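Researcher: Here's the sequence for the chain we discussed earlier.
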Amino acid sequence: MSEGIIGRLIDALTSLPGIGRKTAQRLAFFILTMPKDQAEAIASAIIDVKNKACFCSVCFNITSSETCEICSNQSRDQSKICVVEEPSNIMVIERARVFDGLYHVLLGSLSPIDGITPDRLKIEELRQRVAKGNITEVILATNPNTKGEMTAQYVADVLKPFNIAVSRIAYGLPMGGDIEFADEVTMSRSLQGRKSIV
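Model: Thanks. This is the structure I predict for it:
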């Protein structure tokens, strides 16, 4: 019977992205040995997320109320919006502690081959936010791949009539990386995004 219970947990864990059978087995046996209150806290957090999480009515970040904490925070710079593809991208940017403006989540990136056209993303909602006239800069922080580049260019074109600053995040060589192993596109982007140090 215990083998069936553990088997069920392993099967459930393998349904998570990036979790193979061996990792799922390790996690299952770790869960089995952890204190009951700790396991219950994890289970409760998962249930809470499924029952209470929703999209912010302003920026489409994940929240448990109508407006997320970032949009509700009046101490943040209300004139800048950083556009990202997914809510998880916000967490990464926030950890860097270098951006104090607002966000806008597109909930994906353009991919005509997959049927993801502009009307499937939150681009019109972004246009409406900018149209209100309070925004002076939009930073496009979509992924540095073909879909992300296409999305960034499309959004930039949509925002062109508003005569505001529209910028793209710089990207290139990672800290601790070796130039010897950089591909041509990464090297090109690194050189294009260079900054003066004097």
